[in-house]
């Protein structure tokens, strides 16, 4: 907004607004190349403060993959004009709703836009609820790459779901049942990839 709009919005005279600007009391205000005073909208300004969230499932090379993903998203954010206020990376399943670092990130109030590489980096299910929840609070989610079909992550999440259901169905005996079901999933995936070892 310009200085006149700022004055109207705050119920003051233009001269009072000018005095505030000259005293440096209007955060982010600047003079453009033709001399107009421009005041950024605080809400729009907050949306440029980004929180980067990266996640990979447990598995081989998880730390290398996680660091690479975090770097890619941070680079994308800066390239697209965001200020990275916070960057969080964690190892865990996309179906786990008790991720400690994500929980702490969502409680912070120093960012306006949450940036993830793919939807399922945030959550395997219920992504649109996250979006709605954040939008109701004046925030937003940006997904760098809308296309994602990482079979390894899908298999890891399926195994996490199996363990969760076995825990509910079988209690303390869950590990044996979960191991059996996990072997079935892993064998099916190996057969699909041509890695079958018929014993």
From TrEMBL:
<dbReference type="GO" id="GO:0003677">
    <property type="term" value="F:DNA binding"/>
</dbReference>
<dbReference type="GO" id="GO:0000150">
    <property type="term" value="F:DNA strand exchange activity"/>
</dbReference>
<protein>
    <submittedName>
        <fullName>GNAT family acetyltransferase</fullName>
    </submittedName>
</protein>
<feature type="domain" description="Resolvase/invertase-type recombinase catalytic">
    <location>
        <begin position="50"/>
        <end position="184"/>
    </location>
</feature>
<dbReference type="Pfam" id="PF00239">
    <property type="entry name" value="Resolvase"/>
</dbReference>
<dbReference type="InterPro" id="IPR048046">
    <property type="entry name" value="Transpos_IS607"/>
</dbReference>
<keyword id="KW-0808">Transferase</keyword>
<dbReference type="InterPro" id="IPR036162">
    <property type="entry name" value="Resolvase-like_N_sf"/>
</dbReference>
<dbReference type="GO" id="GO:0016740">
    <property type="term" value="F:transferase activity"/>
</dbReference>
<dbReference type="InterPro" id="IPR051491">
    <property type="entry name" value="Recombinase/Transposase-rel"/>
</dbReference>
<dbReference type="InterPro" id="IPR006119">
    <property type="entry name" value="Resolv_N"/>
</dbReference>
């Amino acid at each position: 907004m310009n200085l006149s709009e700022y004055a109207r919005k705050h119920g003051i005279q233009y001269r009072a607004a000018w005095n505030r600007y000259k005293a440096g009391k209007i955060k982010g205000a600047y003079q453009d190349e033709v001399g107009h005073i421009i005041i950024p909208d605080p809400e729009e300004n907050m949306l440029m403060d980004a929180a980067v969230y990266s996640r990979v499932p447990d598995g081989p090379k998880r730390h290398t993959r996680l660091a690479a993903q975090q770097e890619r998203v941070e680079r994308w954010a800066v390239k697209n004009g965001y200020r990275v206020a916070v960057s969080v990376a964690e190892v865990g399943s996309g179906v786990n709703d008790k991720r400690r670092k994500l929980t702490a990130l969502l409680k912070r109030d120093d960012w306006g836009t949450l940036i993830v590489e793919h939807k399922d980096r945030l959550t395997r299910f219920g992504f649109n609820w996250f979006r709605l929840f954040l939008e109701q609070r004046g925030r937003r989610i940006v997904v760098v790459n809308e296309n994602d079909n990482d079979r390894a992550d899908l298999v890891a999440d399926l195994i996490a779901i199996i363990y969760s259901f076995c825990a509910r169905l079988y209690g303390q005996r869950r590990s044996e049942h979960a191991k059996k079901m996990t072997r079935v999933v892993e064998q099916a995936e190996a057969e699909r990839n041509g890695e079958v070892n018929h014993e």
